[in-house]
Specification:
alpha/beta
């Protein structure tokens, strides 16, 4: 699992790549939480364009970061999920609480 992050103008952009499963979720959660604490973003953008597989641990990771972000008054959105990940998010009803956007990649 690779994590790329960038913080600018109150927005923390995090791109995850690889699989988010019970093996990787704990360390990814710790890394993402550390970035959130360090930057205290107004908005968190979670880019899932390079995530090919996500199980219930991945859903927990996403929903937990959403709770962390909104508990401090921040916002969160998911951008560019792969088709497979989008299907999982939709089946779980995540799009009803977290904005999911398809953005043109540069």
């Amino acid at each position: 699992m690779e994590i790329i992050s960038q913080f600018r103008d109150g927005v923390l952009y995090i791109k995850l790549s690889g699989d988010i499963d019970h093996h990787s979720a704990k360390s990814v959660r710790g890394d993402v939480d550390s970035l959130i604490r360090k930057n205290n973003p107004v908005e968190l953008e979670l880019d899932l364009s390079a995530v090919e597989f996500m199980d219930s641990s991945g859903l927990g990771l996403v929903l937990g970061r959403y709770k962390k972000q909104t508990d401090t008054g921040g916002k969160m959105r998911i951008i560019n999920p792969t088709r497979r990940v989008l299907q999982i998010l939709q089946l779980a009803g995540v799009e009803k609480i977290i904005k999911i956007e398809r953005m043109r990649q540069v």
